[in-house]
Amino acid sequence: MAKLTKEELIKMYSQMVLIRLFESKIGEIYGKGAIPGEMHLSNGQEAIAVGVCANLRADDAISSTHRAHGHMIAKGVDLKKMTAELFGRKAGLCKGKGGHMHLFDPSIKFGCGGIVGAGLPLAVGSGLAFKRKGLDSVSVVFFGDGAANQGTFHESLNLAALWKLPVIFVCEDNCYGISVTKEMSTAIKSNADRAVSYGIPGVAADGNDVAEVYQATKAAVERARKGEGPTLLEFTTYRLMGHFEGDPEVYKPKEEHEEALRNEPIIRLEKVLLEEYGVSAEELVKIKEARQAEIEEAIKFAETSPWPKPEEALEDVFVEGGVR
Amino acid sequence: MSRILTFAEAISEAMAQEMERDERVFLMGEDVGRYGGIFGTDVGLYDKFGPDRVIDTPISESAFIGAGIGAAMEGLRPIVELMFVDFFGVAMDQIFNHMAKITYMSGGNFSVPMVLRTAIGGGYGDAAQHSQILYSLFAHVPGIKVVVPSTPYDAKGLLISSIRDDNPVMFFEHKLLAGLDWLPFGVKGEVPEEPYTLPLGKADIKRSGKDLTIVTASLMVHRALAAADKLSAEGIEAEIIDLRSLVPLDKETILTSVAKTHRLLIVDEDYLSYGMSGEIAAVVAEKGLYDLEAPIKRLAVPDVPIPFSHPMEDFVLPNEKKIYAAAKALVQE
User: In B, which residues are within 8 Å of A319 by CB distance?
Assistant: First the structure.
């Protein structure tokens, strides 16, 4: 497998940093009560979002979860519009009707939702549409280790395999479904092994190593684009935050969390860049500063952006026009 | 040119013509292909359009209804068949939380132009898990259009409109209307050969009358028409409103009729409580109460599952006799 170039890795690092800094900032603002609803952050899982999406084109689709900010940023969302949606503003991606768990952006072919395991059938549908249209676009679905025990997981893998659809199933094993560990919920160690049941490749890889994620996804995307069918990927990582902000995390052993902090993907990538690629520490600081500035700008845009009119709640139940 | 078609044939013809007209339209579901649909509604489509556009699915309702939603979001126009409405439970999340809500949650950025067709109704001894109506459940959740045809002519026109609509539409086909050898009843009627549309949200007055209004839908339209003939022989003229769609609901036609007849009987093959009959009664109570000369009367399944054995099934389902008796009592009140 070809080693990633310095430029490629720097680009991935920059995106991972953007996600991390964004999530941290959002967590801070949420803590002050400025963002409504629940808040699920993806700190520690950035390498998966970035390593997967580095393989994707604008015309590839993503179906994601309640923990979707990272995936959306990695797919190239307009950060201002996304932030405005989190704040419930009119200028948000969904005019303030979706919020943090229901982010939709047709311009990057992205959708997500708050029901565990429910995104898989939708991804099968976009894969079916690509195949029927004769396109070589692929459909990626992110889901957690908890979702892999839903019926939709098995139904969707069977259907995608049966119909040889260009779907990449990406299981982010972050060790927890809220408080329940994978050992408590899942009869086997690796969900990737479940691919055998559907006659498709199943690949388990280190989800905290962005290069490994990138390479595993690359093979799956190439296979899908060639019309050879779906792949199941499972990337192991760790949810550094609670399930949501406000989670007391009484179920997490302290030593486990400390070990995870030493193994988190951004520190690991920085070490690789500094030691193997000769990148200077100053260069990394500059990247962080530039990303932080983008975030501040997006937050400012959202905060100063007008609220929707209350009666706009009555619009968009149906699309107008009917016959098209 | 009009011909006489069965209800099932009218549905099949509507799908065939739309598939010919629009490459994006395709059909998927259980036994829709080589079998031709358990209730005969898909006969001929597989031979005409092949396995790529008439797709037999595994028994995986969540996956294939969800796949319909995903494909619709990508600009295709899927027709998805849920064999019996009673099976919706295994895919309820996909219908209620995704098909119905993605347009709204996305602020109108995504639309879901799909039709979810499903078979409804009892009256042939199929018992509690294969005889329900349930359209009110789906009408309750915002974001789904709910269409309920009663005749071959309406079925074809309403289905073509549903396929061309940019929103998710659930299309409810009563099994006893289908016209199959192994099922009782069955309706036939004149259907124009060329494609045509009927507006969604426009009720149809299937019989006009001055003495009472009967609001109903689907198979019960025919039961009400039979009862109306009997009433007419006794000098009572019932006006029969076939709703044709529950969402959108044509309140105006109902209120206009009640203003004329001053009496309202609602006949529903669905369960009595929290359903269509209650909704229609509420609309009239809110907007037409002073037009009424007698309390509103409802005839529906008395909040029990549909029993198997014939005498009991007959006891719970509305029929011609019960409609006749209820209408007569209402007029005399």
Answer: 103, 108, 111, 166-167
Any residues with CB less than 8 A from the CB of B18 and at least 6 apart, and which? B25, B159, B160, B163, B164, B195
Mutation target for A interface from B106, B159, B163, B200: give the one with most A CBs within 10 A: B106
Residue-wise pLDDT for B74-118, tens only, equals 999 999 999 999 999 999 999 999 999 999 999 999 999 999 999
Which tens digit of pLDDT belongs to each residue from B245-287? 999 999 999 999 999 999 999 999 999 999 999 999 999 999 9
What is the value of ipTM here, to two decimals?
Answer: 0.92
Which tokens is B329 given?
A: 């009592």
- Rounded Cα–Cα distance for residues B198 and B167 (Å): 16
Closest by alpha carbon to B8, among B51, B38, B33, B34? B38
**Residue tagged active-site, from B130, B140, B174, B262:** B130
The residue ranges of DSSP E strands in chain B, in sequence order, are: 2-6, 25-29, 54-56, 77-84, 115-120, 145-147, 169-174, 188-192, 204-207, 212-216, 238-242, 245-247, 264-271, 297-301
Mark which residues 77-116 of A lie under 8 Å from B by CB.
Answer: 92-98, 102, 104-106, 111, 113, 115
Question: Is the model's pLDDT at B230 over the cut of 60?
Answer: yes
**A321 close to B (CB below 8 A):** yes
Report chain A's terminal Cα–Cα distance, integer Å: 48
Cβ–Cβ below 8 Å for B74 and A95: no
- List the single residue in B70, B105, B200 with the smallest CB-CB distance to A97: B105
How do B245-247 and B145-147 pair as beta strands? antiparallel
Query: Which of B58, B67, B107 lies at the smallest CB-CB distance from A128?
Result: B67
Q: Is B104 on the interface with A (CB under 8 A)?
A: yes
42-101 in chain B: CB under 8 A from chain A:
52, 57-58, 60, 62-76, 78, 90, 93-94, 97-98
User: What is the model's pTM?
Assistant: 0.95
Q: Could you give phi then psi for residue A64, rounded to 5 degrees?
A: -125, -165
* Mean pLDDT, residues A245-267 taken together: 95
What is the residue type of B60?
S
Q: How far is B90 from chain A (nearest CA, A)?
A: 10
| CA–CA dist A85, A82 (Å, integer) | 5
- Alpha carbons A227 and A127: distance in angstroms, whole number: 11
Q: Tokens 């019989």 belong to which residue?
A: B207
Residue B247 is classified by DSSP as E
From the list A133, A152, A317, the residue facing B63 with the nearest CB is A152
pLDDT of residue B169: 98
Q: Which residue of chain A comes nearest to B143, CA vs CA?
A: A317
Average pLDDT value for residue range A204-232 = 98
**Tokens 């008796």 identify what position?**
B325
Rg (CA), chain A: 19
B310 is catalytic: no
CB hemisphere CA count around A67 (13 angstroms): 32
Can you read off the two tokens belonging to residue A33?
Answer: 């009560």
